Amino acid sequence: MEDLLIAIDHRDPAWIAIAFAFGLLFKQLKLPPMVGFLVAGFILHLIGIEGDSFLRAIADLGVTLLLFTIGLKLRIGSLLKPEIWASTSLHMLGSIILTVIFLLSLGSLGLFAFDGIEFSTAVLIAFALSFSSTVFAVKMLEDRASLTSHFGQIAIGVLVLQDIVAVVFLAASAGKVPSIWALALFGLIPGRFLLHKFLEWSGHKELLTLFGFVLALGGASLFELVGMKGDLGALVVGVLISNHNKAKELANTLLSFKEVFLVGFFLTIGLTGLPTWETAISALLLLLLIPFKTVMFFRLFTLFRVRSRASTLASLSLGNYSEFGLIVAAIAISSGWLSSQWLTIIAITVSASFVLASPFSLMADNIYQSYQKFLKRFESAKRLSGDGDIGLHGHSILVFGMGRIGSAVYDEMHDQVDGQILGIDLDDRVVERHIKKGRNVITGDASNPEFWSRVQHHESDIHLILLAMPNREANIRAAEQLREHGYKGPLVATAKYGDDVEKLLDAQIDEVYNIYEEAGTGTANQMQKFLMFPREDTPDQIKA
Question: N or C of the chain: less Cβ packing under 10 Å?
């Protein structure tokens, strides 16, 4: 213990305290605490403080855990879809061309750091800025409980393919290829059977948490040993066990650790270098490209038949610059391809892009609602598979969110309403699992206005709806959608925390139950009173 304390610089606790203070401040401003962490790093940076090995180690661990948990929720098949691989490829190409033209134009005007910029330098900088931040985008998707949504999976698919391009660049820039032993990594595929067994034997508490760290760090170390990017190893190992029924539990177990360690990552982004007026203004000019980058994502997604809302939300999640740009800059500077000032410029650009993108990502639904008519003009008349009409006719109860509580309610109420109950979940894998068990479940997102536009029947016999989604905001948005579409019947919701209850009740939800106080069966019993003593205005109709 004494050795560990010696390894920690006396300033580290102070930095963490400052990060907490700014995170708390930005939370009060209705912005993600993550933005506060970035600003804290920026301010520490401006007063001349530099990051140390402890902070960098914490940041690296946070990113490794993040990529591991992404793998736990990733669907490999989605990467093979045209809306993923084609959009990613075309966007990177288009982004590089646009950025090169922009940089050379600024260079011809003799502005700041761009004065006299060469074509090869412009291409390298454009490549560094063609990526979107995996850490930022996934964090925003997690805060919205949208990782498994359609637009969330599109965004993650794009990020994963970009990471693969990053691995290729790192290998090429280092002048080496992966070791011949890298072929042995294919042995992990049949070996996942053993990983599944250990996952089962680990139980539900400290052993499961410890095994998660073993998998994440072990996968990263294994890939590093054979000359490949360690973060990719953590992602791959996560994917190998993603189809296990304990994968979601493992991801939730690691959530708190990942959140804490990522604070170090956001602090280090702001502590990269000391800015000057010239580098700061040069960085601000590069931010002008972000709207074009976002619009390009949107147009490509809609061309590949993604609905306008999903395209908008995915594009706003990806409308930022990546921390990978710092790695590219560092490699280029060490190789003599770039001057040292570009590391500072790109560090400021990446940090500022997070601050700029955060409120837009947070208000994505409102932005779409404001410009819905215009954005829908770009939709394709053809629909992607699984994006067709939805029929609710013949069901008296809807359960949104088929997790532990939703499933328990479904089973308890099924026989009492003669099977006229329908479960709805936004995760395709959850839906498939329930269908195999004989439950009537479909894919859908109640918080998505387009879900209701897909409802086939103009009239339904819905008597009761349970909102059992894991995120409070998702339940509130779903309640708003239901009321807007004419549903006036009973709405029951679940809450994780005591302070969520009042906010859910304010959203015209009739009954709210804390999941730590009410089991699924208990909630179902409470719901029965609505069926036994229906209000005067039920059954109600939901307008499509």
Answer: N
